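$ ./design --mode recover --in tokens.txt
reading tokens...
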């Protein structure tokens, strides 16, 4: 008779509230002091994250979300000067008015109520509804409006709010038997997805509201002067069509009348001018396969919207149509309206019976894109639109893009007389090469003429903010270039002779990546380019006069520009510039002030932590930034540009002080080939160097830059949680790996094994209780390593490539691309094709070392993995199973490369920790590990219970 022991996950999954209460219950010693406890799986749901971080333009209020991983969160409003704090339960999706007066957000119904209603099989309309919260920031008061589906605010102006209400429940839905409903002479029109819902326009300052019925779409102009909406109407007075509401008069005007069954979409206002564009579909038959969209234009002063383009009047090829999939976009100056056109779609013959339809793919050797790639992009291709432009003053239509030039971008916010365009048609058949190649064009918006400015560019091209220059990094040249539009002149900016502007540590058999561009100065005068440590300024009229702005290389300090104004188009060198800083040797991070006038960089703030996102108030010097360490969640801190006074303003997980956590430090060792290496060593709280600890090894390329990264306890998507392991008495070792081209497996051995041995030599690691875990690239290396050494007592390999020869010619199903480039040039680093280097493909494949494996191994490989085909996991599992080796494979049905469903992540966390606890800590064996899980019990029993020893 077998006795089963209850574990925390069963409590968590069966009775989550009880489990959370138990996990959060404080324990005390005989002196009353709180005794810290190890993290358990039951803590996941109530551990919190900060979201929706917004600061008012005047810098007075910080509005953010604080949400548990699973459960009801809240919106928190903090006044930064007084530190006054208020909160609204279950708030989410916050927006702040431009005048800093109000915060508006949804209030979600209680999760428990929604879950109960779903469990009771309630209809959609019977489920609990969202409410709307209007929070007056100055008064600290909140008004709640029930049953709201959506809301919108103007981006930059006005005190207006528009929101839509849910349809009221009918008497039938309410099931009211207390009174007999009186049947009206004519049933009122119902509010539905097809008919639209009630829209309310509200003056936030006065509270006055105006309702409009049966609205389908609505949009504010950026300045808040106008609100456009579409409606299916209700009678001869309130007609179907498109309306424009004027904030000055508070009146809505019908600018395009239509039929209730016609569709009006893609409402788009100009930024400054009183102009609107939209797409209309006049066909009332919903079953019509080929729709005939029409583009309309309206501006203040016009009584009705004007038809600009349709199937009979459009600038594309004969038979083309206006696209209903591309939202029209005005140039910033309002002189041009950009929109899309497309060929008539290919439609199916709906009269055919299923048995008459032939479904076949023809894989042609000259296909521009692989059939698998075409499958991935099929919906995108069906909706593809080709850019055209309407010149408003001239009433002129011009087609800009065509089937040979699909990718286009506006220049200078559409104000320029040309657009940027690229085409990869000549080169996209080279499926085995992941370095994009493309021809670059400038297309004149006046006549559609094309000018080729770069042929076969291997890199990505962009335009300077004001459109004076196109610029790019050329992979084959490992250099930055600019193209002077006015002079039609190519300018080479960098040469990599004295200074390298490409990754100095890159170890791939491919072109190294650049360090990027910091930005442009005002007027497109100079471009700022990053190298490993410093920022360089290149004047476009005198490239020889380039100068280094910072001086980080002598002390190995990395400087990067911090963009405080997200709307800033050019960096203003008339005032100081904020830089972020990372000191490579110590991993200290912080901020410096760069003064363009003196060229001096002054330290403002630095420490043993990792800095993150910086938020600046638009109209004040108030800054918010995150700071984190392994022990400290990335909470927000408030300061000004001087960083002299710093105040913590979020306190996200106060319960963490009740739990054991751990610490982290940098460690050094020498690889087998003599290369000096670094890694991270995580230790438990109350670490005793005289004790022997089990050790987990995890790795993926390089991780030492994550010295100060905080890892909150959460279910596992793919890799182990360091905090959970240290809290439960493990040491965790995370080594950096460097590679030699052609020998990825041997490189991992060369770096990792000496690193593990160096930790054992310190005396506190139990050499007989070491586990190893890796996912994807790390999963491959784990599978390889246990075929080379018996150092590990247990291993976990997630989504491993086991046989490079069979994986090489496969497809990455999520992208539809071939895997060949991955093996030749990118992460696998073989450096050649299978035919050029067959022995390296074999020698680096774990499959061929299976007879040597003596380490138990847990594999997680899911059947919808779009990155590494799950057949690789099957090959590995089947080989070990045939050889009589202990192996288990977890396949979460329908999951991809990493787990996405929370219930599966929770389950995997439990199984992985049970597995390593059994092998490394002599914990009881779980039933699934001892006896498996019969297929007929899948989804019914999980067999997580522990067996008697």
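writing sequence...
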């Amino acid at each position: 008779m077998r006795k089963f022991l209850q574990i925390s996950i069963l409590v968590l999954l069966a009775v989550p509230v009880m489990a959370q209460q138990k996990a959060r219950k404080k324990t005390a010693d005989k002196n009353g002091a709180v005794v810290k406890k190890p993290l358990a799986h039951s803590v996941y749901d109530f551990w919190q994250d900060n979201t929706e971080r917004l600061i008012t333009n005047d810098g007075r209020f910080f509005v953010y979300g604080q949400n548990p991983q699973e459960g009801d969160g809240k919106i928190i409003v903090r006044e930064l000067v007084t530190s006054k704090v208020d909160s609204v339960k279950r708030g989410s999706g916050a927006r702040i008015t431009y005048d800093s007066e109000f915060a508006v957000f949804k209030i979600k119904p209680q999760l428990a109520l929604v879950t109960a209603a779903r469990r009771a099989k309630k209809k959609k309309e019977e489920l609990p509804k969202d409410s709307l919260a209007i929070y007056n920031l100055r008064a600290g008061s909140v008004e709640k409006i029930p049953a709201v589906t959506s809301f919108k605010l103007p981006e930059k102006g006005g005190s207006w709010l528009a929101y839509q209400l849910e349809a009221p429940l009918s008497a039938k839905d309410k099931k009211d038997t207390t009174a007999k409903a009186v049947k009206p002479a004519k049933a009122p029109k119902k509010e539905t997805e097809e008919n639209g819902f009630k829209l309310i326009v509200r003056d936030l300052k006065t509270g006055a509201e105006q309702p409009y019925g049966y609205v389908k779409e609505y949009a504010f102009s950026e300045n808040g002067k106008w609100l456009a909406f579409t409606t299916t109407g209700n009678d001869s007075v309130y007609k179907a069509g498109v309306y424009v509401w004027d904030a000055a008069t508070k009146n809505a005007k019908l600018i395009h009348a239509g039929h209730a069954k016609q569709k009006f979409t893609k409402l788009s206002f100009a930024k400054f001018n009183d102009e609107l564009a939209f797409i209309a579909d006049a066909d009332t038959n919903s079953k019509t396969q080929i729709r005939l969209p029409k583009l309309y234009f309206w501006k203040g002063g016009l009584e009705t919207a004007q038809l600009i383009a349709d199937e009979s009047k459009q600038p594309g090829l004969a038979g083309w149509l206006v696209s209903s999939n591309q939202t029209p976009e005005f140039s910033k100056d309002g002189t041009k309206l950009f929109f899309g056109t497309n060929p008539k779609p290919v439609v199916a013959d709906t009269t055919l019976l299923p048995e008459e339809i032939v479904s076949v793919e023809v894989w042609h050797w000259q296909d521009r894109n692989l059939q698998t790639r075409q499958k991935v992009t099929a919906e995108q291709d069906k909706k593809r639109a080709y850019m055209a432009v309407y010149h408003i003053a001239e009433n002129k239509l011009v087609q800009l893009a065509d089937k040979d030039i699909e990718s286009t971008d506006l220049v200078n916010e559409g104000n320029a007389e040309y657009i940027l365009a690229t085409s990869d048609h000549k080169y996209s058949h080279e499926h085995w090469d992941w370095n994009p190649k493309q021809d670059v064009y400038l297309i004149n918006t006046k006549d559609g003429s094309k000018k080729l400015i770069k042929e076969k560019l291997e890199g990505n091209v962009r335009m300077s903010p004001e459109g004076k220059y196109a610029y790019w990094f050329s992979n084959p040249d490992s250099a930055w270039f600019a193209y002077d539009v006015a002079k039609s002149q190519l300018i080479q900016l960098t040469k990599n002779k004295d200074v390298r502007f490409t990754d100095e540590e890159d170890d791939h058999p491919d072109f190294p990546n650049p360090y990027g561009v910091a930005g442009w100065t005002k007027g497109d005068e100079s471009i700022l380019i990053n190298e490993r440590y410093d920022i360089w300024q290149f004047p476009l009229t005198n490239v020889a006069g380039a100068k280094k702005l910072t001086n980080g290389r002598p002390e190995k300090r990395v400087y990067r520009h911090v963009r405080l104004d997200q709307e800033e188009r050019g960096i203003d060198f008339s005032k100081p510039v904020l830089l972020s800083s990372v000191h490579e040797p110590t991993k200290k991070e912080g901020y410096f002030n760069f003064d363009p006038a003196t060229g001096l960089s002054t330290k403002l703030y630095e420490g043993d932590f990792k800095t993150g996102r910086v938020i600046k108030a638009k109209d004040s010097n108030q800054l918010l930034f995150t700071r984190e360490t392994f022990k400290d969640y990335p909470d927000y801190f408030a300061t000004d540009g001087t960083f002299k006074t710093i105040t913590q303003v979020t306190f996200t997980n106060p319960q963490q002080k009740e739990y054991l956590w751990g610490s982290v430090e940098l460690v050094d060792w020498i690889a087998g080939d003599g290369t000096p290496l670094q890694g991270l060593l995580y230790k438990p709280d109350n670490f005793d160097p005289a004790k022997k600890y089990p050790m987990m090894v995890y790795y993926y390329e390089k991780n030492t830059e994550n010295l100060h990264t905080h890892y909150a306890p959460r279910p596992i998507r793919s890799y182990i949680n360091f905090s959970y392991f240290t809290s439960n008495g493990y040491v965790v070792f995370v080594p950096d790996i460097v590679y030699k081209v052609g020998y990825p497996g041997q490189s991992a051995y060369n770096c990792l094994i000496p690193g593990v041995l160096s930790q054992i030599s310190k005396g506190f690691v139990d050499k007989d209780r070491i586990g190893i875990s890796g996912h994807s690239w790390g999963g491959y290396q784990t599978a390889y390593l246990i075929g080379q050494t018996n150092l590990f007592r247990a291993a976990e390999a997630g989504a491993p490539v086991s046989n490079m020869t069979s994986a090489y010619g496969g497809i990455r199903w999520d992208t539809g691309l071939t895997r060949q480039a991955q093996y030749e040039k990118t992460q696998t680093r073989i450096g050649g094709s299978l035919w050029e280097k067959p022995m390296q493909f074999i020698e680096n494949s774990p499959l061929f070392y299976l007879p040597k494996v003596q380490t138990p191994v847990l594999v997680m490989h899911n059947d919808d993995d779009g990155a590494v085909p799950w057949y690789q996991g099957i090959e590995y599992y089947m080989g070990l199973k045939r050889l009589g080796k202990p192996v288990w494979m977890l396949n979460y049905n329908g999951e991809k490369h990493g787990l996405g469903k929370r219930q599966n992540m929770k389950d995997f966390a439990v199984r992985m920790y049970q597995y390593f606890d059994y092998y490394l800590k002599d914990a009881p064996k779980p039933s699934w590990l001892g006896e498996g899980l019969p297929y007929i019990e899948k989804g019914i029993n999980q067999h997580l219970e522990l067996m008697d020893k």
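exit 0
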